[in-house]
Write a structure and sequence with these properties.
By secondary structure, the protein is mainly α. The protein has 7 helices and no strands. It starts with 6 loop residues before the first helix and ends in an 11-residue tail after the last helix. Keywords: Plasmid.
Length: 134
Amino acid sequence: MTGNRSVDEFRDDLLKHIASGSSPALDVWSIPTVGLTEKECRSFSIIRAMRALTYPENPDIREAASFELEVSRAAAKAMGKWTSGIIVPHDILGLALNTSKGGVAPGNIGGYRVDADYTRRHCATTASPCALVH
């Protein structure tokens, strides 16, 4: 934030700007594919890309993220844009996150389980709401 605006003033201005429709949201379908194979998509690491952005002066980190940076440049070129950040192409965005071939193991439906007994016993003795997540 710049200037002497409060958080509330900034939020109000931001909401007015969003409501005006002057800057449409990015349509993820407009992000091009760059022709990556499934194996290449799976080897893409957003963590390596973020490290390269965080430590641009470190040649080892940039070398480790060379694939991610190359993919981002190809996506930017396909979009006709230049960016100082990372563009993740639709090849990767469209890849299913759940790669399990056998489905869900018996008794495991995924997600998190909250232990209700622990919550009742423990939270009754504390002032803040809490839950044990497994």
